[in-house]
Amino acid sequence: MIQIDDAIVALDVIEENFICDLSVCQGECCVEGESGAPLENEEVEIIEKLLPAIWDDLSPKAQEVINAQGVAYKDRDGDMVTSIVNGKDCVFTYYDDKGICKCAIEKAHKEGKTDFYKPISCHLYPIRLEKFREFTAVNYHRWRICKAAVLLGNKEGLRIYQFLKEPLIRKFGNAWYNELCIAADEYKEMKKNGLTK
């Protein structure tokens, strides 16, 4: 593990390769899972305010769910997550003309309708953050539906932390990310010289 400030980064974040391949996975991470996408408390209010900008892109069922229970709920672990449709689909999904599942919030951002890109947990995926009292764990979440992303990442030789540069900077800042890059280079050199276990 690598510690930078109060974040502890799992080594596979700097060792493993990953590039999302939407043409293969079709955005399945937005429609599979036991609950919605994790949300930070302040994100709930932000999403509530931007609803008018994305409302027309949401499915009628998603609109019904939001009207009934809001944009988020607490899952069985007590974590705040996005509301879901049909027991699995995030309410903020829509499908493009190729049938690929995408985020209506991200679409609104790209169209200049909101400054909010999308929930940080979605932006950071496949990294998942787990907050403890004294530190935040930065872990790689392995999921079968991301097999194509691993294959493409291996083909291009792009590490997870490199693929996720933008969201990591968004979450932790430029200085933090630069420290991570330095640590990753040092670890790579140590590994090459047989100085790691």
What does this structure look like?
With 197 residues, the chain is α+β, with helices and mostly antiparallel strands. The protein folds into two domains: 90 residues, no CATH class; 89 residues, no CATH class. Helices cover 43% and strands 16% of the residues. The protein is built from ten helices and ten strands. The strands form four sheets. A four-stranded mixed β-sheet has the order 1-2-10-9. Strands 3-4 form a two-stranded antiparallel ribbon. It has a two-stranded antiparallel sheet with strand order 5-6. A hairpin with a 3-residue loop joins strand 5 and strand 6. Helix 9 packs across helix 10. The mean pLDDT is 91. Belongs to the Rv0495c family. InterPro entries: Rv0495c (IPR021458). Pfam families: DUF3109.
Strand order of the largest sheet: 1-2-10-9
Largest sheet: 4 strands, mixed
Shape descriptor reads globular
Distance between the termini: 12 Å
Spans of at least 5 consecutive residues whose pLDDT stays below 50 are none
Average pLDDT: 91
Q: How much of the sequence is in beta strands?
A: 15-25%
Beta strands, count: 10
What is the SS-derived class? alpha+beta
The SSE string, one letter per element, is EEHHHHEEEEEEHHEEHHHH
- Total DSSP helices: 10
Q: Rg, please?
A: 18 Å
Percent of residues in helical segments? 40-55%
Instruction: Please indicate the count of domains.
Output: 2
Entry summary:
Helix content is 43%, strand content 16%.
